[in-house]
Amino acid sequence: MTPRQHSPAVVLAGFLLLLATMFGVAYAAGRAAGPVAPGLHRTGGGSGHGSDDGGGMGGMHGMEGGR
Predict the structure, then answer these.
(1) Whether pTM exceeds 0.90
(2) What angle do CA 33, 40, 56 make, to 5 degrees?
(3) Would you say residue 13 has pLDDT above 70?
């Protein structure tokens, strides 16, 4: 008994179907799990590429300009 040979188009179509199915299952699982950190949200406006408040860690007094 020899293995059956499939054309490359059939193999590619099967792979794409499997890939789409896996993405769908992963998306559904993510939607069912909900947000990772429900209380975490963006504060302030802007483009989301950082903030103009200087960043850093609040409460670290005396560490402003030690360069």
Answers:
(1) no
(2) 140
(3) yes
